């Protein structure tokens, strides 16, 4: 089906000891679409990202990739499918330069030695594709602004040519100008046909960028919204629990 999602979750459950963090969660991410994953603290958003990225595999449920059932038990499984994740802490090494961070653990070697020229060339090419620059590729990442570090983290995630990108609070610690830069970057990725799952507490970011919104409350689905037609009040009511709406699965792509 041309309209089938890249990634779909059905009935996903996750438990840590006696605590059930996710219960029968449904989610769909389509190509060329930004889906905002919303919910109060403790709603299960970060756990769901860990399930999709293979860091904390689901205990129950079905995960589909392009319509076929897949098993994501470790990060390599997600990466091999085409799923990349940028966590809130970015996981960058501040003492390494931009090139070193992008290729950390994926170094290019030639005749047994690091091919610094090739890695630098690919870094420049990738940043140009993102229409972003940094002051100096060989500058320690710790010397970059928060927005520039976010760009480096996103650029690193794109090395494997992923088709779905998971972003955990990418603008949480950024000022207005840097937030705008990151949102523009995500918008460009959507235009290239990538599916993006965006965790955010900022309704401004969600309204400015997202196509759809999926709300979690206490580990369960509590609403799916077309961001262009739903009011901010409707979405916030679903987040806070003022309205209870626990659908079994997302509406069809057209009805969202």
> Which structural class best describes the helix and strand composition?
alpha/beta
Note the gap between the termini.
Answer: 17 Å
CATH superfamily of the largest domain: P-loop containing nucleotide triphosphate hydrolases
Number of separate helices: 8
The tally of structural domains comes to: 2
CATH architecture of the largest domain: 3-Layer(aba) Sandwich
The CATH class name of the largest domain reads Alpha Beta
Rg over C-alpha atoms, rounded to the nearest angstrom: 18 Å
The coarse overall form would be globular
Overall pLDDT:
90
CATH topology of the largest domain: Rossmann fold
Number of strands: 12
Residue windows where pLDDT falls under 50 for at least 5 positions:
252-256
Topology of this protein?
Layout: E1 7-16, E2 19-29, E3 34-38, H1 45-53, E4 60-65, E5 68-70, H2 75-81, E6 83-86, H3 98-102, E7 109-110, E8 113-114, H4 116-129, H5 146-157, E9 164-168, H6 176-191, E10 195-199, H7 203-209, E11 212-217, E12 220-226, H8 232-240
Helix pairs in contact: 5-6
Question: How would you describe this protein?
Answer:
Helix content is 31%, strand content 26%. The protein has eight helices and twelve strands. It has helices spanning 45-53, 75-81, 98-102, 116-129, 146-157, 176-191, 203-209, 232-240, and strands at 7-16, 19-29, 34-38, 60-65, 68-70, 83-86, 109-110, 113-114, 164-168, 195-199, 212-217, 220-226. A hairpin with a 2-residue loop joins β4 (60-65) and β5 (68-70). The model is unreliable at 252-256 (pLDDT under 50).
């Amino acid at each position: 089906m041309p309209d089938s999602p890249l990634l779909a979750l059905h009935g996903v459950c996750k438990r840590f000891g006696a605590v059930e963090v996710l219960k029968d969660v449904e989610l769909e991410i389509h190509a060329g679409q930004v889906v905002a994953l919303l919910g109060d603290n403790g709603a299960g958003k970060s756990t769901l990202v860990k399930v999709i990225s293979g860091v904390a595999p689901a205990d129950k449920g079905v995960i589909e990739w392009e319509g076929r059932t897949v098993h994501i038990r470790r990060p390599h499984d997600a990466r091999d499918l085409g799923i990349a994740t940028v966590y809130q802490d970015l996981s960058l090494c501040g003492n390494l330069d931009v090139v070193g961070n992008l290729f950390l653990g994926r170094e290019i070697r030639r005749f047994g030695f690091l091919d610094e020229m090739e890695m630098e060339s690919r870094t420049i090419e990738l940043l140009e594709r993102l229409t972003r620059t940094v002051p100096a590729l060989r500058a320690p990442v710790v010397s970059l602004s928060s927005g520039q570090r976010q760009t480096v983290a996103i650029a690193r995630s794109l090395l494997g040519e992923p088709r779905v990108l998971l972003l955990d609070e990418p603008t949480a610690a950024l000022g207005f100008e840097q937030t705008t830069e990151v949102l523009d970057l995500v918008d460009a990725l959507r235009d290239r046909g990538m599916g993006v799952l965006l965790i955010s507490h900022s309704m401004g970011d969600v309204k400015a960028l997202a196509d759809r919104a999926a709300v979690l409350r206490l580990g369960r689905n509590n609403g799916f919204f077309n961001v262009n037609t739903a009011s901010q009040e409707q979405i916030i009511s679903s987040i806070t629990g003022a309205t209870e709406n626990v659908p079994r699965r997302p509406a069809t792509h057209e009805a969202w």
